[in-house]
């Protein structure tokens, strides 16, 4: 490596390693049959849950209703409904027997999405109501949800977004003018190394697994994985995921970073991967553990998705980007209640930008 390249590499590593605050995840609160939470950028969401008392079971539950609102000056406001569309073209939303909204059903993740002033009108009916029923064009039941706790959930959002006492609040209305803070989410600078394909051989992975905390958790069919992280000069790095136990719907992996110096005498060496905030499944203060891990080799992003039960209506998920030295959290979502809410609440967001493309749009 030339002296200029060597200095450039040191500077790049220093920039990528610039200290950022440890991600502080937003709190999720449950209010009877609704749950609500916000992320670090001020975006909040309230989601309906299956009723615990006197409510219908899954036969009447097509999916949750979620109310989404941003805290910025753009004030994005949406009400979304999840269910299986089944080729239907229109819906009717009834609250306590009264028609409050009707419109087209579209194909996609959210067959019903109400926005703007229409969403505010429906939200006011939700706050005052007891039961919402959404029907198809022939009177078919698409989904229904208890509204117990919806007012408290939206009041919580008013408070978290500092709307309480202002003219934009949904529940805690007042006469003050709302002044949005426009909080910026963190920007992560990514120092992505030169592309390379070198990864540890299978025998090195077996030796690592035998020397890892996962040794006694490996039973049945196990599959260890290795992915290249690139090269800088004569130093190569790789991400290694060691199989670390499995259940009916969750498959655990322990992440390691492998290093190999070309023509070096030691071969590959390994150490546990570092995270700015540990994946929830492993817990703070312990070696990281991923669940149902996913890896995007081009972007060098890593994901963990742990389901609380097979239905996937509760659990936690995190996404990270490799900054050249450690994994930094770019997204986190969770659903604490196992009550039919397939719409998890985002509790952390960050952007990232590759160092060599600093002028390009953020991810």
Distance N terminus to C terminus?
31 Å
Count of discrete alpha- or pi-helical segments spanning 4 or more residues:
4
C-alpha Rg, in Å?
24 Å
Number of strands: 22
Main beta-sheet strand count, sense and barrel state: 6 strands, antiparallel
Order of helices and strands: HEEEEEEEEHEEHEHEEEEEEEEEEE
Strand content: 35-45%
Kindly give the count of domains. 2
Task: Choose one word for the global shape.
Answer: elongated
Largest sheet, spatial ordering of strands: 1-2-3-4-5-8
Question: Which structural class is indicated by helix and strand composition?
Answer: mainly beta
Helix proportion: 10-25%
The whole-number mean of residue pLDDT values reads 90
Query: What ranges have pLDDT less than 50 throughout 5 or more consecutive residues?
Result: 1-17
What does this structure look like?
With 363 residues, the protein is mainly β. The chain folds into 2 domains: 3-23 and 186-357, no CATH class; 28-160, Invasion associated locus B (IalB) protein (Immunoglobulin-like), CATH 2.60.40. 13% of the residues lie in helices and 36% in strands. The strands form 5 sheets. It has a 6-stranded antiparallel beta sheet, with helices on one face. Strands 12, 13, 14, 15 and 16 form a 5-stranded antiparallel beta sheet that branches. A hairpin with a 4-residue loop joins strand 19 (315-322) and strand 20 (327-335). It is elongated and about 75 Å long.
Protein traits:
5-stranded antiparallel beta sheet, 2 domains, 4 helices, elongated, 36% strand, mainly beta, 363 residues, disordered N terminus, Immunoglobulin-like
